[in-house]
Amino acid sequence: MIRTLALFIFAVSASAPVFAEESSPPWSMADQYFDTDEMAHARHHILSHHGATRQLSIMADRLEVQSADEGDTLVWDGNAWYGGDVNKLWLKSEGDYSLESDELEEAEVQALWSHAISPYFDLQGGLRYDLEPKGRTHAVLGLQGLAPYWFEVDAAAFLSSEGDLTARMEAEYEFRLTQRLILQPRVEAELSAQDIPDLETGSGLTSLNAGLRLRYEIIREFAPYIGVEWQGSFGGTADYLEAAGEDSDRAVFVAGIRAWF
Amino acid sequence: MFNRRRFLQYTAAGMATGAAAAPAWARTSGEGNFGIPMLQGNQFDLTVGKFPVRINGRATEATGVNGSVPGPLLRFREGDEITLNVSNTLAVDTSIHWHGLLVPFQMDGVPGVSFPGIRPGETFSYKYAVPQNGTYWYHSHSGLQEQSGHYGPIIIDPKGADPVAYDREYVLVLGDWTYGTPERLFAKLKKHSDSQNFQQRTVGDFLHDASEEGIGAALDDRAMWGAMCMSPRDLADVGAPTYTYLINGRSTADNFNMVFNPGERVRLRIINGSAMTLFNVRMPGLPMTIVQADGQHVQPLEVDEFQMGVAETYDVIVTPQAAEAFAFVAESIDRSRQAVATLGPRPGMRAAVPQLRAVPTLSMKDMGMDHAAMGHGSMEMGSEAPAAMDHSMKGMDHDMAMPMDHGAMDHSKMDHAAMGHVMPDPTGPAVQMVSIEADIEKGPGVANIAAMPMSRLNEPGIGLDDVGHRTMTYSQLRSLEPNPDTRAPGREIVIHLTSNMERYMWSFDGVKFSEVTEAIRFHEGERVRLTLINDTMMPHPIHLHGMFFDLVIPGAETSGRLPRKHTVIVKPADKVSVDITAEHVGDWAFHCHLLYHMAAGMMQVVSILPAEATPMEDHQGHQMMDHSTMDHSSMGQGEMDHSKMDHSKMDHSKMNHDAMSEEDMKR
Question: Where are the coiled-coil regions (chain A) (predicted)?
Answer without folding.
Answer: none
